[in-house]
Amino acid sequence: MRTLIASALLSVAAAFIIPAPEAQAGPGFLVCPSGVTGVATLQTSCAFADNVRTAYFSQDPPVVLAYSPVTRAAYFMYCVSGIRANFFDGSSRIAAKCYGGDNAEVVVW
Questions:
Q1: What pLDDT, in 10s, does the model give residues 76-102?
Q2: What number is the average pLDDT over the span 31-54?
Q3: Residue 29 confidence class, pLDDT cut points 50, 70, 90
Q4: N or C: less crowded end of the chain, CB within 10 Å?
Q5: Which long-range contacts (CB under 8 A, 24 or more apart) does 15-21 make?
Q6: Is the pLDDT of residue 6 over 80?
Q7: Closest by alpha carbon to 83, among 45, 51, 38?
Q8: What is the band of 20 on the pLDDT scale with cuts at 50, 70, 90?
Q9: Partners of 24 in the beta sheet?
Q10: Dihedral sign (CA 101, 69, 13, 19)
Q11: Domain spans in the chain, listed from the N-terminal domain onward
């Protein structure tokens, strides 16, 4: 039973990215199914994270406006670029961390 629980925890942990200490981007992010965004808070949906990414690359950061299909509301997000997101597989990407809305935290790359 303990092995099964440990295995499940490792599988969940593998889906998180951990920023480098200098990134100051928080303790970790769940990588969304799109593979180009991550969320750091449970109240942040991947659908919203993907919309933040679209807004980040189509608007004029650092402040972008993104729509949440879950809450059916638009939120302003403040984005900081140049964050290094380190993944458990040893790879890393330069990303942007966006926060705002209703305590949302999103990483986009």
A1: 999 999 998 876 667 788 999 999 998
A2: 92
A3: confident
A4: N
A5: 16/88, 17/85, 17/86, 17/87, 17/88, 17/107, 18/86, 18/87, 18/88, 19/83, 19/84, 19/85, 19/86, 19/97, 20/84, 20/86, 20/92
A6: no
A7: 38
A8: very low
A9: none
A10: negative
A11: 15-108
pLDDT exceeds 60 at position 2: no
Tokens representing 27 are: 């303790």
CA 98-102-103 angle, 5° bins: 55
Peptide linkage before 62 cis (omega within 30 of 0): yes
Q: DSSP secondary structure string, the chain? A: -HHHHHHHHHHHHTTEEEE-GGG---S-EEEPTTSSEEESSTTS-HHHHHHHHHHHHHS-TTEEEEEETTTTEEEEEEEEEEEEEEETTS-EEEEEEEEETTTEEEEE-
- pLDDT at site 88: 64
Write down the pLDDT at residue 30. 83
- The amino acid occupying position 15 is A
